[in-house]
Amino acid sequence: MRSGRELFPKITVGLDLGDRVSEVCEVDWRGREVRRSRLATTRAGIRQYFGERERCRVVLEAGTHSPWVSRELEALGHEVVVGDASRLYGGRRKKKSDRLDARYLARQGRADVELVYPIRHRGEEAQRDLALIRARDQVVRTRTKLINHVRGAVKSVGGRIGRCSAEAFARRARRELPQALREALLPLVELIERLTAQIRAYDRQVERLVERYPEAVRLKRIRGVGPLTAVAYVLLVEDARRFERSRQVGAYFGLVPRLAESGGAEPQLRISKAGDELGRRLLISAAHYILGPHGPECDLRRYGERICARGGKNAKKRAVVAVARKLAVLLHRLWLSEAVYDPDYQLRRRERRRLQLA
């Protein structure tokens, strides 16, 4: 039988990251608290505290600083466990402080790292490229808010700006702004114009990113999956082999129903919305296109149409989510297998089975 010294790390460090100062709690293999300290949340502070010491297990929770801190600690030779902050502490706690958090991380990490729901941060290059996509998303959302504000302000005085794309809105609004509101709204229209130019610049950068990720080139062969969705998917997953089965990717993007089984009851719940919100939104957008009037005839569209045909409350919404989930699985399968996308693969498969049984 293995002794406690063999079962547990010699030292487990709980590191509660603050924006400027971080709390540290260390426990030994027996579970005794052996040290309390604080350190500056800087590269120099991390290196000074962890640089010249024996390898240990360091447990921290995911947050703003955790990506670079975890890479820094791994470079120093330590075992690093990053816990999922949204699941780490269970229910609402009656007492909360940075010192208590550091102690909790150390003790949970010593006992069993699965208790902190470990996650894996993406690499520095992927994080940098993903920052570009997130920046573009923020600009697009800001433009949408400004367009909605201008349209609402014009309607409030009895006017109306005609229907047009977001890209064409500034040109149209210049012509159709009521004279009484031009002084107030024209600066916003000019800002919308500049944001549109910035979005085009981001789109050119995304196109160049596609060339750096050959997986994205293969994924965007699916109608409805553009360069932005393909690159974002590759960057968010990063390593396709991290999933044992392709079906797990649906849960990774929060596109599967939440589970709350108890006492034989199995209520139908909404999707979990776990994981990255941007990635989920892009997959949902692609599903809307596939099921929309311009969507291609393919297995994904037929799958969504069958769900819609069942009827019931929110049938179209459920179909869109189901297609987005299936799309996430299909993208992963194509990535791993490097197969050529066949939009009618399932249709042909069913036809072959029918002929075999005839």
Helix proportion range: 40-55%
Nearest-angstrom radius of gyration?
26 Å
Low-confidence stretches: none
What is the H/E order? HEEEHEHEHHEHHHHHHHHHH
The secondary-structure class comes to alpha/beta
Outline the structure in words:
The protein has 358 residues and is α/β, with parallel strands linked by helices. It contains 15 helices and six strands. Strands 3-2-1-4-5-6 form a six-stranded mixed beta sheet. Helix 6 packs across helix 10.
Would you summarize the structure shown here?
The protein contains 15 helices and 6 strands.
Keywords:
358 residues, 6 strands, alpha/beta, single chain, six-stranded mixed sheet, globular
Question: What order do the helices and strands come in, and which of them pair?
Answer:
Layout: H1 4-7, E1 11-16, E2 21-28, E3 33-40, H2 43-50, E4 57-61, H3 66-75, E5 79-83, H4 85-88, H5 98-111, E6 118-119, H6 124-155, H7 169-176, H8 182-212, H9 214-219, H10 227-237, H11 248-252, H12 277-291, H13 299-309, H14 315-337, H15 345-357
Parallel strand pairs: 1-4, 4-5
Antiparallel strand pairs: 1-2, 2-3, 5-6
Helix pairs in contact: 6-8, 6-10, 7-8, 8-10, 10-12, 12-14, 13-14
